[in-house]
Amino acid sequence: MKVTLLHEHGGMRTFALVLATGDEAASALQTLASEQRLSASHFTGIGALSRAVVAYFDWPSRKYKHIHIDEQVEVLSLAGDIALDGDRPKVHAHIVVGKADGTAHGGHMIEGRVRPTLELVVTEAPAHLRRRFDPESGLALIDPALTSR
């Protein structure tokens, strides 16, 4: 995992995060968020994975159903945000991957094993976004009323 601070001004920071073969994408994003104390960020990325686990939130059960993709795929889109859950940053990432036959699969990113690279740009705003437990869904959702500078 290689991280470079590309820009910093007025409380905004932009990072390049480049992952290499064997790196695990979800944990690398969480490591970056913790090490840089990110609290109101968004990110995008492209690259490729040797395998992935995506998830679909099943509303009736209020649980994520994992979908294992055990083959080389292209990352067509990776997007998400980082907000505080309590006092710790929490990564929320969605991913769409393309298989060799042109089909696409996507969902909440649980795991992504990089091969050969995954390139992300992470931008942090000067405000702090906070999550609050939503009893209806059972999820910690961003609550704009808790945003602080």
Provide structural commentary.
- The chain is mainly beta and 149 residues long.
- The chain has a single domain, classed as Hypothetical protein, similar to alpha- acetolactate decarboxylase, domain 2 (60s Ribosomal Protein L30, Chain: A).
- 7% of the residues lie in helices and 64% in strands.
- It contains one helix and nine strands; from the N terminus they run ββαβββββββ.
- It has one helix at 25-35; strands spanning 2-9, 12-20, 40-58, 63-69, 73-85, 88-98, 104-124, 131-134, 139-142.
- The strands form two sheets. Strands 1, 2, 3, 4, 5, 6 and 7 form a seven-stranded antiparallel beta sheet that branches.
- The longest helix is centred in the N-terminal third of the chain and has 11 residues, at 25-35.
- The protein is flat, with a radius of gyration of 16 Å.
- The mean pLDDT is 93.
